[in-house]
Amino acid sequence: MSTPLVFKFGGASVKDAQSVRNVARIIGQFSQRPMVVVVSAMGKMTNAFEEVVAAWSNGNLSEANAKIDAIAAFHQDIINELFEDPTEINEHVAALIASIREGLDKQDISYGEGYDYIVHHGELISTRIIAAYVGQEVPTVWQDTRELVKTDGQFRRATVQWEQTGRAIRSNIVQDKVNFVQGFIGSSPDGRPTTLGREGSDYTGAVFAFCLGADSLTIWKDVPGMLNGDPKTFANTQKIDALPFNEAIELAFYGASIIHPKTIQPLKKKGIPLHIKSFVDPTLPGTTIGGVDRPEPEVANFILKKNQILIQLSTKDLAFIAEHHLSAVYRLFAEQGVVVNLMRNTATRAMFCINNDAIIVPKVLAELTGQFDLELTSSVELLTIRHTNEEDETRETEGLDILLEQRTPDTVQFVFKRF
Hints:
Elements: E1 5-9, H1 17-28, E2 35-39, H2 45-57, H3 61-82, H4 87-103, H5 111-119, H6 121-134, E3 140-142, H7 162-172, E4 178-182, E5 185-187, E6 193-195, H8 201-212, E7 217-221, E8 226-227, E9 239-240, E10 242-243, H9 245-253, H10 264-270, E11 274-278, E12 287-289, E13 301-315, H11 323-336, E14 340-345, E15 350-355, H12 360-369, E16 372-386, H13 390-397, E17 400-407, E18 411-418
Parallel strand pairs: 1-2, 1-7, 2-4, 3-4, 7-11, 10-12
Antiparallel strand pairs: 5-6, 8-9, 11-12, 13-15, 13-16, 14-15, 16-18, 17-18
């Protein structure tokens, strides 16, 4: 029994019918091996589903239904282009669209549970379509990741329960077929849908690779490999050929968009290399993470996070910021699913740079206002430079209003506003 290949295709790789055909061609080149293919929602569908969630959360069900109509039409156009006889796939997708609408009636659940219930349908629909299309040429099986990836009950940022997940994956993956599974999703102990966090499909790939003892995990992207910065933001970016696991973990922690922060850890534990390859030109060598001690080449890395908010808090009684104050803040952040991108404290003030989530941040601020005096700066950005030098810093910070700066021997971070 040969070790299965584990591939992951993101939304950009399955954004339309032509893209689905391209994915089928790539899979067809490896059909002699057992395979697990993790797929995200198509194109920008996760954003579209989040708009449904926002309308549902605001009680505007007519708007939510209209957005579901648009989602259904988007997928129907792709189906019509891919299939001569779409009868069977239409039935599967119609059932999933009906299931989304059922979620709109769930008015007595938390925002997080409603989010996970609605949004996870994007992956279910995409994998149904792609498995059916690829299945016309090679033997495929559609697997329900909710039955395979077992998590705790923390909605929007669920934690994988490794033992139960490993047993479920190993007992359900079919060796002589291409197994299509959904990225990003799982289920709680009582069977409710959960999600692993935004961009969590990469992590799903790592979960399957770990549980199956795969030789590698390959993530297919629209770039020739991992670059040392987003080329849409930074000039003169360079491709990284190879990267140690630890450096990849650091870059993911600081927000490198090409890697999900939790993806590397399970791969590192078993020494499973991660390949980042181009679905545009699969012949390119790409980037390999793991198997080296130093990056090749050794260059600075640049990461920019936009839409941040800087929260500065102090005690109402002018007391020093102590451990119990910070503990209360972090407990609140954990409960609300807030990720702290930068934190610094002085004797009398604590500063947190976080994602400016339109739903979560108002709830967090309402809680903090009761305990602390707050100073807020919205529309800020966070620049992180790994392995920086003076020339890099001067070039990238010129003309910026730096509000907060933090340094370690390997990394510098700037919270700033643009003029």
